[in-house]
Design a protein that fits this description.
single chain; six-stranded antiparallel sheet; 6 helices; binds guanosine-5'-monophosphate
């Protein structure tokens, strides 16, 4: 592996072969509340890599360009190098988490339209919400880039919603990161139970990182169940 370029809470980024790629290794560390709660969950990296790779291959098949080039081993992926847009995108179907807390909407309330939010990507500041005029004002992205990011995020929402429905899972909300790669905006980072809320379609049971955040137990059983169901759904 090349030199470490950056170590984050759940991934390590290494120099890739050549100057157009990077190697990302998923760690077993689980964190929540901006790193205040932290635990090693043996096998989490492998599960998140497998789930994210499956979802990125599915999205690529449906016309979404992602950073994924190929899986290297069970926890590592080779990706296209991109300049990350420092605004994260959150898409919501159903009220939960920060949305429920901030706006006093009970968890599980169906939203009348899809919600798209942006957050400043900053651990130091705790990822505060930021609006489009603020993003363009401080130069995080141009208006045309934001329009393209929003278009792609909504398309990804439709595609993921359909796949998870086939897997008997409700997609409640999720977080995306995009990057600039040449002239294009591409999907970067990961889509995994760390970055999505996923509830069992029949029982409403939480299968995602809220198990860790809320001390519900059996965190990785939820992740394993998501992977198993996605693998089945892919074959339908
Ligand atoms: P909320 O704003 O309700 O806390 O989060 C909304 C959705 O985005 C949830 O699925 C949550 O897991 C995801 N999310 C928000 N911020 C982050 C983040 O900094 N990292 C990750 N991995 N996911 C996030």
């Amino acid at each position: 592996m090349g030199n470490v370029l950056y170590e984050g809470k759940s991934k390590i980024i290494y120099e890739g072969p050549g100057d157009k790629s990077l190697l990302i290794r998923y760690k077993d560390t689980a964190t929540a509340f901006n790193g205040e709660k932290k635990e090693e969950l043996s096998g989490k990296g492998k599960l998140n890599a497998a789930i994210s790779n499956l979802l990125y291959r599915y999205l690529a098949k449906h016309g979404i360009e992602t950073h994924l080039i190929q899986a290297v081993d069970e926890t590592s992926v080779l990706v296209k190098k991109a300049e990350i847009v420092m605004a994260e995108v959150i898409v919501r179907n159903t009220a939960a988490g920060g949305f429920s807390k901030k706006y006093g909407v009970p968890e599980g309330t169906a939203l009348k339209n899809t919600v798209v939010e942006f957050c400043l990507k900053s651990d130091v500041l705790g990822d505060p919400m930021i609006n489009e005029s603020q993003i363009t004002a401080i130069g995080l992205a141009a208006a045309e880039e934001l329009a393209e990011i929003t278009r792609q995020a909504l398309r990804i929402h439709v595609l993921l919603d359909a796949l998870f429905a086939k897997a008997g899972i409700r997609l409640i909300d999720f977080k995306l990161e995009f990057g600039r790669c040449g002239e294009r905006i591409i999907l970067c980072d990961e889509i995994s139970p760390d970055s999505c809320r996923l509830w069992d379609g029949d029982t409403g049971q939480k299968l995602d990182k809220d198990r860790f955040r809320q001390n519900l137990g059996n965190v990785l059983d939820g992740y394993r169940e998501i992977l198993r169901r996605l693998q089945n759904a892919e074959q339908i």
